[in-house]
What we know:
Structural class: alpha+beta
Distance between the termini: 57 Å
Order of helices and strands: HEHHEEHHEEEEEHEHEHEE
Shape: globular
Number of domains: 3
Amino acid sequence: MQINELSQAQRERLAYLELRVFFTGELRRADIEKRFGVKPAAASRDISVYRELAPQNLGYDLSLRCYVAATNFSPVFDMRQERVLTWLAQGFGDGLELSLPTQTPFEGPQHFFSPNLPTLAALTRAICAKRAISIDYLSVSTGAKHREVVPVALADNGLRWHLRAYDRSKKQFADFVITRIRQVTPLEGKPQPHECIAADEQWMSTVQLQLVPHPHMKWPQAVELDYGMTQGVLQVTTRAAMAGYVLHRWSVDASPDHSLDPSAHHLWLQNPEVLRNVQSAVLAPGAQPQEGAE
């Protein structure tokens, strides 16, 4: 059987099936039923058809009672990286490119992030299964090193994607740039409670950033319109682990005395004290180290 022999509706369901099992490591018939509103018999037929298309891709785990991604999994659908990342970030965009024309000309900034999809899939499977992994990681500060980590989440800083994970060698949670990760190997055994996402204080806690036009802006009303401010203030709630990335991406002057150049920093953080004990604050322009921050 060939893909082009299937109906458009069935291609969409099979593409979803493949994307889900590849990036989460598990697939149940109920997943297809819930996503597309089909009967159990139709979902079973979809799985059978997919196994005809790619007999090497699916295995069945009797203990979990679900289909799992085989070790030599090779996608049969064209997975565009942008759509995969959208699916991971927002929960839709099932990975199948429909080539539908846009109604309005549109162009966005170029994205340089080009993940290796098998690597990304290995990471997301580890997150979903709550399993530790070993990785080869190339750091700009320490070079290539072998790490044992417990992945807990993915994070997009606007320029590139990070893996949030517990680093067993440093005994703390940290961010790893996904494009620098190589050779992902699952490890046996369940992570300890202190290695799981509930123990990641920086990820679990939130901070509220009060952003205002830079005090030295000549026409602050223009900035208020840019960001849809209410009474001259934009309230942004973010995870503590992401606060520094947000301020860096938006070029927010985080200095207490708004001392940075307003031509390059249209926004100022009106409540810089909120960065106290926020480890990612080291990335914020002009931020001063706070007591308790690393």
